[in-house]
Amino acid sequence: MKKIISFMHISLDGFVAGPKGELNWAKVDGEIFDFVGKRISQTDTAMYGRVTYELMESYWPTAGAKPNATQHDIDHSKWYAKAGKIVLSKTMKGMSLPNTKIISENLSDQVHDIKQSQTGGSDDILLFGSPTATHVLLEQNLIDGFWLFVNPIVLGKGISLFKDIKERIKLKQLSTHQFDCGVTELNYVVER
After folding, report:
1. Looking at residue 163, what is its pLDDT?
2. Beta pairing partners, 46
3. CA 42 to CA 136: how far, in whole Å?
4. Cα dihedral sign for 58, 62, 68, 71?
5. Pair 101, 61: CB distance under 8 Å
6. Interior CA angle at 22 toward 142 and 60, to 5°?
7. Would you say residue 120 has pLDDT above 70?
8. How far apart are CA 53 and CA 102, in angstroms?
9. Residue that wins the pLDDT comparison between 32 and 123
10. Where would you tag: which of 9, 56, 68, 100 has the fewest CB atoms within 10 A of its CB?
11. Which sequence spans correspond to the domains of the chain?
12. Global pTM?
């Protein structure tokens, strides 16, 4: 069965974005890009909320072809072109996009079907950013793990990852990694 893994940068006080959705506080560098790139390359499916999907779609299809493209840009752009994409959106209903499935209704049933599907070679579906989509999936107990990059900053306010959680979510830690820039990777699976 496929697993949905929420992949996010997070502040020490649990925020995944500032009050207006800003991410200018999240630290990313070559060491993090290389680390993340290894795991992403083992995954063939990405999941997004509409806002994050639109951001990704506006950048990654052409990022690798730009004259100043970094190796990360080239590699991720190639991966993005091949990866299956799942977008959770009520406003994109009925749209047909290449290599992309839009889920607008019957979220729980459709996500369960995707998780049971044998298509693709990877067991992980990485949910990139997308705090609103994450909140909806958390409410329906559809997230199987968290791949968090804890940034050494306290924001004080913003968009909380674990907003309005109604019951405990027991986690088992799979790994941790400390980066030179001060970011700490925490990788958890949900214990059911």
Report:
1. 85
2. 85, 126
3. 26
4. positive
5. no
6. 70
7. no
8. 11
9. 32
10. 68
11. 3-19+26-190
12. 0.92
Tokens 């795991």: give the residue.
Answer: 39
pLDDT digits (tens, 9 = 90+) for 12-49: 999 999 999 999 999 999 999 999 999 999 999 999 99
Structure tokens at 69: 């493209």
Please give the full DSSP string across the chain, using - where no structure is assigned: --EEEEEEEEETTSEEE-TTS--TT----HHHHHHHHHHHTT--EEEEEHHHHHHHHHHHHHHTTSTT--HHHHHHHHHHHHSEEEEE-STTTT--BTTEEEE-S-HHHHHHHHHH---SS-SEEEEES-HHHHHHHHHTT---EEEEEEES---SSSEETTTT--S---EEEEEEEE-TTS-EEEEEEE--
Indicate the average pLDDT of the chain.
93
Fold for domain 3-19+26-190? Dihydrofolate Reductase, subunit A (3.40.430)
